[in-house]
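Dear colleague,

Thank you for sharing your sequence with our group. We've completed the structure prediction you requested, and as agreed, I am returning the results in plain text so they can be pasted directly into your records. Please verify that the sequence below matches your submission; if there's any discrepancy, let me know and we will rerun it promptly.
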Amino acid sequence: MTKTGKYHKKDRVTLGMVLIYIGIALLALICLYPFVNVLAYSFSGYNAVLSGRVTFYPIDFTVDAYKEILKRPQLWLAMRTTVIVTLGGTALSLTLTTLAAYALSRKELPGKNFFTAVILFTMYFGGGMIPTFLVVKNLGLYDTLFALFVPQAVNVFNFIVMRTFFRDLPESLEEAARIDGASYLGCLIRIFLPLSVPIIATMALFYAVGYWNTYFDALIYIQDPNKYTLQLRLKGLLTGDELNNSANLEGIGTQVMSQSLKMATVAISTIPILVVYPWLQKYFVKGVMIGSVKG
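Please find the predicted structure tokens below.
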């Protein structure tokens, strides 16, 4: 709208825009409904769950399911394991991916095409589950937390994205630093990493979500129940393996209480990683090269 109070044509809301926004809102509602329904069930009372009246919001609000599930030491052990694997695995993966991507993005590196081809080969061809299991066992990683992030420390897709990012950065930045006597590692730490916060944050989110949701690797490589991940515990709860008579609270039926416990555990295992998304979201759209090169 102009200062005179008149609207330009581009300021007018068209029917097409309204339909687009309505479609986006409906799509968002469809995506959010399962999680909202899980929260509603986890906070609803016995009669509401039994009668199937729970939809978008809790009925007969109660936190009994959360009280019961949080009293279980197995949940806290699984949470600790998942946090350790997520933090340790993300740190290791980011370090290895960044170093490999930076090195193989340099044109002067001898044999960079060969090493890149070898890495890309693993993206399409793998040894299989049994050979990988034997390698993990012979390396002494079986039934240790290292088995959950060392074998898959570098994701090839993330490596390609980061290598492309480093390769597209202006060469003048590195040339100026090299003239001033900086080493390649110095260029990486002082020049490229400060400019790479958005891509590093994105890769960190990708790796963290992957490690947080670790299930199959834990199922194969972990034997000690005290080292189970949160997702493996959740699987046991959803299939009924983790439920026992202690799940009953006073005045609440076993079947309904089991359903509430499942929903509460799903919420507890999902909320922490969801909290990370808004904090890293700003880096997805932030400009990387604004003001980095002038002249």
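Summary note from our side: Confidence is low (pLDDT under 50) at residues 245-253, 287-295.

Kind regards,
the structure core
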